[in-house]
Amino acid sequence: MATSGFHLAGHDWGGSIAWGLADRHSERIASLTILSRPHPNAFNRALQIEDGDQAHRSRHHKAFLEPGAADIVLADDARMAARAVGANGVPQSAIEAHLVVLGNKPAMEAALAWYRPPRRHPRPLGPIRVPTL
């Protein structure tokens, strides 16, 4: 267990990165907090389940690999992006603020780059040795 170091928090793809850091550099991390990203070993196992719920929920990962994905997401004043975010209860004002930043092709291409290529840890992670939430 780490007795000194920094507190690391990660969300979604950042959570995936944080899991790897905690696995490889536990001596530098005082605690780990992950939001919306299970342990990579469990996530990869869930993705392998044929007709599994996680594969269905993560289908956008593959869609974002397609050429022209940014154009599709941004088409019709980013209607697809606004709908997807709005379906999760995000207020319209927050969606508009979000699209001010990501509502152009270079920014959307940069955001979608997280999905190219799919991020997988090169080896299964071991048990995390820092306090984890």
With strands numbered from the N-terminus, the spatial order across the biggest sheet is 1-2
Distance between the termini: 14 Å
Mean pLDDT: 88
Secondary structure: helix percent: 40-55%
For the record, the count of structural domains works out to 2
| Count of DSSP H/I helices | 7
The secondary-structure element order is EHEHHHHHH
| Secondary structure: number of strands | 2
Low-confidence stretches are none
Classify the beta-strand content into a percent band: 5-15%
Describe the structure in your own words.
The protein has 133 residues and is mainly alpha-helical. The protein folds into 2 domains: 1-54 and 120-133, no CATH class; 66-116, no CATH class. The chain has helices at 13-24, 40-48, 53-57, 59-63, 69-86, 92-102, 105-112; strands spanning 6-11, 29-35. The radius of gyration is 17 Å and the shape is globular. The mean pLDDT is 88.
Compact overview of the structure:
Helices cover about 50% and strands about 10% of the residues.
Output the keywords:
10% strand, two-stranded parallel sheet, mainly alpha, 2 strands, 133 residues, 2 domains
Strands, helices and their partners?
Elements lengths: L5 E6 L1 H12 L4 E7 L4 H9 L4 H5 L1 H5 L5 H18 L5 H11 L2 H8 L21
